[in-house]
Amino acid sequence: MHTSNNSERLEKCDRIGRIPLCTDDDYDFQKVDILDEMYKKSYTIFNELRSKCQLCDVALVVENRKLSAHKVILAATIPYFRGMFTLDLMEANMKEIAIEDMNYETVDALLSFAYTGELRISTSNVQSIMMGANFFQMLEVVQYCGTFLLTRLHPSNALSIREFCKMMCVEGSIAEKINDYIQKHFSAISKDDDFKKLPLEDTVELLKNDNLYVDSEEQIFVAAMEWLRFEESRHDDAEKLV
């Protein structure tokens, strides 16, 4: 620990005393701002400690597998755990916390994001990541996933993406851009089975949208007829669509 060296250094500093710096003005200062660098270095160390299971005080149990972590890091980065650990819930003192209805890979990815700020979103994991982030109240990650889905919009999936994003409480510009896409590609979307499977309320709302890109009102009428024919039980809904 080099205690003797530190003591000698402190004694020498005391002998020097306060160095005159030409001014005693409290406003004569220089601000040191290394927060980004410091946080990055600190969280790199936190993640190393996590990977080695050092100083960890909690484990997340997912699909009978454990993910070690530090409560203070979870509380600082994941709102769900902040509430759990600071509101006197019984889990606050538990060494193991079971995470239900989520797969191991999703929780592992979100936990790694909490420690590193890095997350790999792909077509194969975007929905599970988005659902997990929504559960953990990681709204920033939910938005990242919504932005990813925006770049994958197609007439065959636009309605499903809109419904999924609505369930994940995605609002603002992402929701607006999805709706804009549906309006601009209504002609192709209305021919897809996803459109024909829409519930009545959503179909009425879409068909009555004044911003649909169509050549004529006839296209909307044809789409309505296709929706009605898709299921025999819908015949009584004709008046609501017209």
From TrEMBL:
Stored Gene3D superfamilies: 1.25.40.420, Potassium Channel Kv1.1, Chain A
Membrane-crossing residue ranges in chain numbering: none
Coiled coil: none
SUPFAM superfamilies named among the record's database cross-references: POZ domain
Residues of the BTB domain: 56-123
Top-level taxon of origin: Eukaryota
Record key words, sorted: Kelch repeat, Repeat
Protein name (database record): BTB domain-containing protein
Organism whose genome encodes this protein: Caenorhabditis remanei (Caenorhabditis vulgaris)
Taxonomic lineage of the native organism: Eukaryota, Metazoa, Ecdysozoa, Nematoda, Chromadorea
